[in-house]
Amino acid sequence: MVKILLERNVVWARERTEADPGFFKRLKSQQTPEYFWIGCADSRVPANVIAGLDPGEIFVHRNVANLVHSADINCLSVLQFAVDVLKVKHVIVTGHYGCGGVRAAMDGSRHGLIDHWLEPIRELAARHKAELDAIAEEEPRLDRLCELSVESQVSRLAATPIVQDAWARGQDVTLHGLLYSLADGLLRDLGCTHTRPA
Ligand code: CO
Q: What pLDDT is recorded for position 16?
């Protein structure tokens, strides 16, 4: 019931104000997040909660399987606002092991519109067929594909005119790829960081 959410919201707002009386007043005037997070829509991967950040500290875009489509006006609009206006320092693509989107891309059956959305994952899997085929078990094979996909999304971000232009004008914005484990709640840095070319 939505009523429960409204009741919980009242409790949350009251506790926030008690802990920090200026909290809402500060956030009302402006947001100055240093981070922009592109993550999976999966309910188990909430950006603020798992990164331990308060409202106002991280700008967020989420979609199924944390993909960066080069013609996705939604993702690109949010990216442009984050980079050009908010001037975030870090753009973070966060995937997660056991991603249902990655699994759906590879299970060989049709699911509807989402099959179009997940097309880059199938293409990526085809490009890395030899490496993936060498992993006998399905779960670790899909987990490896989750990693490859995050690395690929970070590369796509680096190639966008938005990021290219930010770097060209000397703006420090660093791109990162992380993987979240549902099993232990920990984020892992994939080491595919892209920084402004020197
Ligand atoms: Co997912």
A: 94
